[in-house]
Write a structure and sequence with these properties.
407 residues, alpha/beta, eight-stranded mixed beta sheet, seven-stranded parallel beta sheet, 15 strands
């Protein structure tokens, strides 16, 4: 994780997070362990829980606990255990001398718990850093309804997150996840990708490269036009569902795939999700007495319907690449660097810099995150001279693009 380690080396001596007490709720993987250790090395105290009941790497959680880091996570948690772990990350009913003053969230569950169960926690918080589309939706809803009483930084829509974690990470991990879970051949398979945002784009590019026939569903005419120009057929779900071999959701929405849709799939079809939340596939509608669930391997179930049709479901509709595979550390380094910088920025923000609203990561910070990772490629940036800077109306050290620029 070159960028995050570079940030650690540069900032460790200054301890910019000294006094910060961070409650975190993210995936618990080896890469996130590096982030947790970095936050501690930068001066903070942390307590941590998992944002997904299947993605925790138990050996990583155990290693963190062995270092006396308060970590509350294990793979295959029940829903009740999941919320208990989140309460422990917030130190609810624990020692009164430890209250979080920062939240690092992935999916919004930690923030949601505070909002529903213990609103008094917000009184001690300086801010929230959120990295997922699901969590950002929740924060914007809280802001519109007047329930957001502290500032929040939106890492999910930062350029370095959307273009690298969402696009390139999914491009490199979707095939690995499908292969590990199902051992299926992908060449010639008909694949439906629901959503053509950055995650959907990455999945489409990757699967196209191995010979899959790609179809896309979209609600947004701009994304739909992009899919058309990239050579993919944009369709409605009901037009093609019966002929699909693989269906992948990547919308950030809820109930994109329902039981009615699943019953129309062919026998042997694979159903999975690449979005953060497990709401995209309506699992409740599939957990009915007349549908037989068989565990065939870790995080893979066969669903047999009354008609005898059998469909393969991966990770009960939770994010496939983190539940069933591994993801390249380089991409996690990019997002983790943005998260760490966001925490530092909010922690030191002077009164009045941020109101009780949701803010994008500052452009200058986004560019700095990218610059931390360029040495890994031995990349050398061109420098503008003074005359060129004056002509373009920008500073020699950036930011180099206006906030409205679309990369």
């Amino acid at each position: 994780m070159p960028g995050l380690m570079s940030l650690r080396r540069r900032a460790e001596g200054d301890k910019p997070l000294k006094g910060a007490k961070i409650s975190g709720c993210t995936h618990i993987t080896a890469q996130i362990a590096v982030l947790i250790e970095t936050l501690i090395r930068l001066g903070s105290e942390v307590r941590w829980a998992a944002c997904n009941i299947y993605s925790t790497q138990n050996e990583v959680a155990a290693a963190l606990a062995q270092e006396n880091i308060p970590i509350f996570a294990w793979t295959n948690e029940t829903d009740e255990e999941f919320w208990w772990c989140i309460s422990k990350a917030l130190n609810i009913n624990g020692s009164s001398d430890w209250l979080p003053n920062m939240i690092l969230d992935d999916g919004g569950d930690l923030t949601y718990y505070c909002q529903k169960q213990m609103t008094s926690v917000f009184n001690s918080l300086k801010g929230i850093v959120e990295e997922s589309v699901t969590g950002i939706h929740r924060l914007y809803q809280m802001s519109r309804s007047g329930l957001l009483t502290i500032p929040a930084l939106n890492v999910n829509d930062s350029v370095t997150k959307t273009k690298f974690d969402n696009l390139y990470l999914c491009k490199e991990s979707v095939i690995d996840s499908l292969k590990r879970c199902t051992d299926t051949m992908l060449g010639g398979k008909q694949v439906l990708i629901c959503g053509y945002g950055e995650v959907g784009k990455g999945c489409c590019q990757s699967l196209k490269s191995v010979g899959c026939l790609i179809y896309v569903t979209e609600i947004d005419p701009i994304c739909a036009l992009q899919a058309c120009m990239d050579g993919f057929k944009v369709v409605r779900l009901e037009e093609v569902i019966k002929q699909m071999d693989i269906v992948i959701t990547a919308t950030g929405n809820k109930s994109v795939i329902t039981r009615e849709h699943v019953e129309k799939l062919k026998t042997g079809a694979i159903l999975c999700n690449m979005g953060h939340s497990n709401t995209e596939i309506d699992i409740d509608s599939l957990q009915q007495p007349d549908i037989i669930w068989d565990d065939v391997r870790l995080n893979v179930q066969h669903l047999t319907f009354p008609s005898g049709k059998r469909v393969t479901l991966i990770a009960e509709g939770r994010i496939m690449n983190l539940c069933c595979s591994s993801v390249p550390s380089f991409f996690i380094s990019i997002t983790a660097s943005a998260q760490a910088l966001g925490l530092i920025d909010l922690f030191h923000a002077p009164c009045g810099k941020y109101k009780n609203d949701v803010y994008l990561l500052p452009k200058k910070m986004d560019e700095y995150v990218a610059s931390l990772h360029l040495p890994a490629f031995d990349a050398h940036l061109t420098e503008l001279n003074d005359d060129q800077c004056q002509y373009l109306g920008i500073n020699k050290s950036g930011p180099f693009k206006p906030n409205y620029y679309r990369y």
